[in-house]
Amino acid sequence: MAVSQGIGDVQGMTCQLFAVCFGASEPLVLARFWSGVLGWEMVDDPDDGVTLLPSDDTGFRIRFLPSQEPKAVQNRMHFDLTSTSLEDQQQTVTRALGLGGRHIDIGQLPEEGHVVLADPEGNEFCVVGPGNSFLADCGFIGALACDGSQEVGYFWSEALGWPLVWDQDQETAIRSPHGGPKITWGGPPVAPKTGRDRLSFDLAPPVHGDRQAEVDRLLSLGAKRIDSGQGEGSRVELADPDGNEFSVLTPQ
Question: What InterPro entries would the database entry show (predicted)?
Fold first, then answer.
C-alpha cells in the first residue's frame, strides 16, 4: 500500500501534531515529574491543565489535563527515552526515580537493554540503552511506541503527512520530515481496547487552516467521529481505525 504518495503536496495543509495529551488525576504533579525528566518548561494550559514546551526539536507539546478515570490497564502508547551511554541511561533512571517514578515489570527481558519505569500515575515509559540503531538519530524522546495495527500506522502517515520510515512484518513507524521522535506501532496482536486512552494526540490545523475541512479529510481516511457531532468549542473528538481517541483543535 503506497501511503506516501502525495505527502509532499499536502504537507502544507495537513494538521500538525500539536500535543501528546495525558489524562491526569493530578495534572500539576504529573507535569512536574515530566518537566524534571525532560527538562521542558511548564506553562498554564487553557483547559485547566499544564503544558510542557519542548526545549529541543521534538515538535510537539505535552499537555496534562484533568481526568477522573483511574488507570486500569497498560497504556497503548508510551515514550521511549534514549541514552548516549550506560552512565547516561542510569542518570535518567535515577532522575526519574528521584522525581517519583518507579520500576515496573511488564515482562521485559534483561537482554533487551532498556529499563521500564512508570510515572507517579502509573504511565509506563522506557529508558532505552545506548547503541539502539533504530533511534540513533532521534532526540531524547526517541519514539512514541504504540500498540497498534499496520492499518493505523498507514492512517497516521496520511493524517499527519509524515512518511513511513519502517513497514515490515506489520510493524510500522512514521517520522516528521523535520525530524524529532518516531511514532511506532507494533502490529498484531493488538490488545483489546478497554475504556478511554490516557494518552492521546491533539492535532491542529495551521493558523489559516480550515478545521472542518481537516475533520472531513480525517474521516475520509478512516477516522470516526465520537463527539456530539456539533463541532463547537475548542476541539472535535475523533477516533482512529484502532479506536484510539484524538482531538482536532482550532487552528494554531
Answer: Glyas_Bleomycin-R_OHBP_Dase (IPR029068), Glyoxalase_6 (IPR041581), VOC_core (IPR037523)
Report the side by side order of strands in the sheet with 41-45.
41-45, 49-53, 61-66, 16-24, 199-204, 245-249, 235-239, 224-225
Cβ atoms of 148 and 76 within 8 Å: the answer is yes
Instruction: Give the dihedral sign, CA 5/18/208/244.
Output: positive
Q: How many residues does the chain have?
A: 252
Is the distance from CB of 55 to CB of 93 less than 8 angstroms?
no
The per-residue pLDDT for 230 is 53
AA identity, residue 5: Q
Q: Is the peptide bond before 189 cis (omega within 30 degrees of 0)?
A: yes
- Ranges of beta strands (E only) in the chain are 16-24, 41-45, 49-53, 61-66, 77-81, 102-103, 114-118, 124-128, 141-146, 164-168, 171-175, 182-185, 199-204, 224-225, 235-239, 245-249
Query: Would you say 66 and 55 are in contact if contact means Cβ atoms under 8 Å apart?
Result: no
pLDDT over 80 at 12, yes or no:
no
One-letter amino acid of 182: K
36-80 residue pLDDT tens? 999 999 999 988 999 999 999 899 999 999 998 888 889 999 999
This prediction's pTM? 0.90
| Element of type H or E holding 172 | strand 171-175
